[in-house]
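User: Please predict structures.

Assistant: First:
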Amino acid sequence: MTSRLYKTTKNTPIHGLFLNATSQTNAFDSRPFTTKVKIVNNTHNPELKTSLKRAENYGHKPNQILSSDISSNVTPVQQKMGMEQSQVIQTAFKLPKFKLPSRKKTPKTLYRIDERKPNQIVASNGFKPHNQNGNIKIEEHVSGVLKKPDSNGGNLAKPHSQFVSTGKLGMLEDPKMTTMVTGKHLYKIKPSASGKANYHSVKEHYKKIGEKQPYPQQKEWVSEGGIPSGEIKQYLTEKQLLAQLPLKRKPLIPWRRKSLKGWQDMPTSNTV
């Protein structure tokens, strides 16, 4: 292959690109990110002298290449590369806006099965945890077992729990719930009513700690510090609830689509 050497003139635009002069097609191959061009003294290289002389014999005049010719050949390539580099720079420094992942949004409505009557709950100002000053982990509350024994050597989590359990309505699809509602009421809770309670998704918590959730079918959410009476809006009695629970579990009866009926408003503090 015959090599061609092009000496850049004073007016030759470089534009941060090194122009490869070894192509047979008179087209310059661009090499991005080169910031320096080394000028070699050709007078001390006999091989280059021979190459230049042969080029002149074939009618080529490397020393007489006009800067305008180089510019006309290079400009389309440089423009294309310039556009691509500009896009890369914009992508690198103008990242699209995105939201950081946050804790799962608290449902608008939650439910709790409790043996206490409505007037008792209002009188005690809502659902209180077993230990208002407790400091156990959510997984300990769910399992009912402490990871480390307490000062008395016991491992029961319930006396130390600062959480109150609630769940989505789908928890009633759990067959165990049929026995759990015996002698109890189902309470409807609106977490946003007071904005004072602090709810946590049990499912998301187990994902975070990398452990398997023991009762995923219960759709559990826990409220840290309790649930004020202002968030407890309505209730169903045991009789009302059992009459509406699906008797067949496989397949499930789509009872949730119809919603539960017969909800009664919670009594006010004046009527308790």
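Second:
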Amino acid sequence: MSLRLRLTLLYTSLIGGTLFLFGSLVYALVSLILIDQIDSILSQQAEALVQVLRVNAEGDFDTRLLDSFQPTDSSLLFQVWGTDRELKYARPRFWRDPLDPLAAQMGRTMFNSAYSRGTHLRVISIPLLTRRGPSGLLQVGVSQSLLDTTQ
């Protein structure tokens, strides 16, 4: 093997490795930025929902206020679960399965990627607390189809 051939192979390997490294970094950075944007939207919408939620004297949620809530993203899904782990409110109404089944057991605010009804979702789960104690769980989710497409 001549010196020219060895140097050509070395140069090609170095360029290929460098391109692979930078491509991987760009891929990871774009994925992180998209997840951060999704999390930001979910946080804003969850905060708006928490401001709208009201609990009556019996400890039940007032769903009339939730019916009038207009999210900024039409693909937004949200659910309100009671402390008895019963679904109190869902939008869309047909979505009866938990957006993130594992989050109901955690007892703290958390972001998670989960599959529900065959759809890949990014979900924020927020425990709802009143002066009287825990009153339920709010789950707000959005489809990750854009992120899945870019990956």
